[in-house]
Write a structure and sequence with these properties.
Elements: H1 24-33, E1 38-41, H2 44-50, E2 64-65, E3 68-69, E4 73-77, E5 85-89, H3 93-97, E6 105-110, H4 113-127, E7 133-136, H5 143-152, E8 157-160, H6 162-170, H7 174-196, H8 204-217, E9 221-229, E10 247-256, E11 259-268, H9 274-291, H10 301-312, E12 321-327, E13 331-333, E14 353-361, E15 366-373
Parallel strand pairs: 1-7, 5-6, 7-8
Antiparallel strand pairs: 1-4, 2-3, 4-5, 9-10, 10-11, 12-13, 12-14, 14-15
Helix pairs in contact: 1-6, 4-5, 7-8, 9-10
Amino acid sequence: MPDATQPKPGAAGVHAAADLPFDKKHLDDLLEAANIDILLVTSKHNIQYLLGGYRFFFFDQFDAIGITRYLPIIIYPKGRPDRAVYVGNAMEDSEAENGRFWCPTVETRSWGTLDATDLAIDHIRRIMPPNARIGVEFSFFPADAMDALRSGLSDCQIVDSHLPLERLRAVKTPDELALIREASDRVVEAMLTTFAHCCPGITKRDVTARLRQEELNRGLNFDYCLITAGSGPNRAPSDQVINSGDIISLDSGGRYGGYIGDLCRMGIAGRPDAELDDLLGWVEAVQQAARTPIRSGMLGKEIFAAVKDVLSSSPHSANTHFVAHGVGVIGHEAPRLSDRGPVTQRSRPGHLPGLRRQSPVTGRHGAVDRDDADASSPRLHQA
């Protein structure tokens, strides 16, 4: 198991500019292809990735402060990491003292969106020529900050940088795959322990609270739990009481070293009958069929084509929902997979899809669900 404290993608550490925690050439090539001269990174997950796992602990759970919000910014000029800048909150001066940033220039003087943006504008003016193309994460850049950026850099063109950043994260290193494997294993262990304490009379909220604690006990950051119980498809924690014979579906995400383990497992308050055994066997067959085409160079739609015949073989196919999506530092990240419309981005070694099958048994048992992560090499789970 990798040490999640070492300086590599997914784990916090001390970095020098000459030893970046990401693939510099790959990022520069992606920025060149997108015609971006300078990159402004503001999302927590991309900040984490580019800083080798760093997340400021004070704002790990909540961004709001006073009348504004936390806005960290990495300024990365294409091909010039020696000119990179990190703009952080004033309280991050202690993190700077601890050597948590590889960026040669670190500004820890901001408290909100506008002062952070003003600092970024000043630095961009100093290091970039006029008329530069600036890549910004549109979905993660507040409106007031965007107005200030456009006003302060009116001679520059501002474009969306989502695609190059997503593609930078898409191909996982062996260390990243190992962290996802570890996160996944710990989530499953937490679920099995939670199931062992489930009994008639407790509520869905009780089960969720137990799973949260079991994940925390295993060093995970608990993200969520989607839970069904009995014959209903409702997936929210509630005061619904679990009765004898109810099946329980736990779909949970927990992060380890910054990477998500996103899995689902089934339990029952009692003993499964033959129908449930058969149905879970069919779910397993669908998942194994979905794994068959996974290889470098495949199109995402090939996964959906591979399961078509198995899906249609069950009398429950009309009530079946199959999903495949990427996993990594966020849920549903690249590779982008779909069975609707053209999927032009091909899989590469290190792309990591998650596979999901859900089959509601209408009016009787509820949802029989299974969710696993898989990779072209190595595979994470042989369910």
